[in-house]
From TrEMBL:
Domain Isopropylmalate dehydrogenase-like residues, every copy: 5-348
Major enzyme class: oxidoreductase
Cell membrane is among the record's keywords: no
InterPro entries named in the record: ICDH/IPMDH (IPR050501), IsoCit/isopropylmalate_DH_CS (IPR019818), IsoPropMal-DH-like_dom (IPR024084), TTC_DH (IPR011829)
Domain of life (superkingdom): Bacteria
Transmembrane portions of the chain: none
Keyword annotations of the record: Manganese, Metal-binding, NAD, Oxidoreductase
The protein's required cofactors: Mg(2+); Mn(2+)
Protein name: D-malate dehydrogenase (decarboxylating)
GO molecular function (one): D-malate dehydrogenase (decarboxylating) (NAD+) activity
Pfam families: Iso_dh
Record-listed E.C. numbers: 1.1.1.83
Coiled-coil blocks: none
Length: 358
């Protein structure tokens, strides 16, 4: 039996509500498949924890998380806590400590009714964005000089190491080869004359080892245009930390919104735990109302299952999501339905169980 130990960090706002439904999906799979089991340990960390204790997580939090196979995160963010604190003291701290240098963000249209783009189908919008997740513009390097004075200067330094840049680009080439898809690099080499020129150079160098992979390279402004006008140009995409963050939210906009956006923070070598999360934020304005969309959180469960070699179940979860989209009455209000968060989760488990029996 394969046993997977999962650390739960439900977090803030709607995080606990959507994570609960993802956990129920995993428990249902455990009941359906005697070859796999899960254990869950919950940690109360997040912004509300910060307001009470003065820190986003316990001092020994990283050491405690180290013993798990995966981390399942709900959402982080709460009024009264600056965004840079919630990001750097929990999410980025975990990503960096566990060398989760690959961020996987599927941008896939589940149903034509979900996109604001005219005449685009599921075949037109189906890409995987591979975002560098450990350095780049989010390295935290820089300085704040002469603070509060007229000559005040702020420096924010992007860090692009040979190791960090090459490994994410090579990972993307491997994925493109494995899935027999094209690979597109997104950079800004014409303006960022050090970091992005270096990125483009490494992309070309690594590509010599993958002559079978068809490649393209776009400036980020042009890529933003083509995401909207010609999304079918993109299959596998690789880009830097900042550009990946922005482009994938644009991707969410053309595929149904953040309620359907998921992400995996991967340590491919499995030396450390990887982290799986919906990327919609904590949405404190609707927290506790039972209307949060749990589908992104459930999609992250599919990513988790794929990562642990349970592709059959990963596909079953994703297929069930796709079939759920056609049942408007069983969706949350953001997708035109009237169902509650738990009602969506319950219907999902019901459909997944029916699918397995058939």
């Amino acid at each position: 039996m394969k046993h997977i130990k999962i650390a739960l960090i439900p977090g803030d706002g709607i995080g606990p509500e959507v994570v609960a439904e993802g956990v129920n999906v995993l428990k249902a799979i455990e009941q359906l498949d005697s070859d796999i089991s899960f254990t869950f340990t919950e940690f109360p960390w997040g912004c509300e924890y910060y307001l009470e204790h003065g820190n986003m997580m316990d001092d020994d939090g990283i050491d405690r998380l180290r013993e798990f196979d995966a981390i399942y995160l709900g959402a982080v963010g709460y009024p009264g806590v600056p965004d840079h604190i919630s990001l750097w003291d929990l999410l980025l701290r975990i990503r960096k400590a566990f060398d989760q240098y690959v961020n996987l963000r599927p941008v896939s249209l589940l149903d034509p009714s979900l996109t604001p783009l005219k005449s685009k189908s599921e075949k037109n919008i189906d890409m995987l964005v591979i975002r560098e997740n450990s350095e780049g513009e989010y390295a935290g390097a820089g300085d704040w000089l002469f603070k509060g004075k007229p000559e005040e200067v702020v420096l924010q330094t992007g860090v692009f190491s040979r190791k960090g840049t090459e490994r994410i680009i090579r990972y993307a080439y491997e994925e493109a080869r494995r899935s027999n898809r094209t690979l597109t690099s997104i950079s800004k080499g014409n303006a960022l004359n050090y970091s992005m020129v270096f990125w483009d150079q490494v992309f070309e160098e690594v590509g010599k080892d993958y002559p079978d992979v068809t490649t393209y390279s776009y400036l980020v402004d042009a890529a933003s245009l083509y995401f909207v006008t010609h999304p079918e140009r993109f299959e596998v995409v690789v880009t830097s930390n900042l550009f990946g963050d922005i482009m994938t939210d644009l991707g969410a906009g053309i595929t149904g919104g953040l309620g359907l956006a998921t992400g995996a923070n991967i340590n491919p070598e499995k030396t450390y735990p990887s982290m799986f999360e919906p990327v919609h934020g904590s949405a404190p304005d609707i927290a506790g109302k039972g209307v949060a969309n749990p589908i992104a959180a459930i999609w992250s469960v599919s990513q988790m299952l794929d990562f642990f070699g349970e592709e059959k179940w990963g596909k079953a979860v994703l297929d069930t999501i796709k079939s759920m989209i056609g049942e408007t009455a069983n969706l949350t209000p953001d997708l035109g339905g009237k169902a509650s968060t738990s009602e969506v989760g319950n219907r999902f488990v019901e459909k997944l169980t029916e699918k397995d029996k058939n």
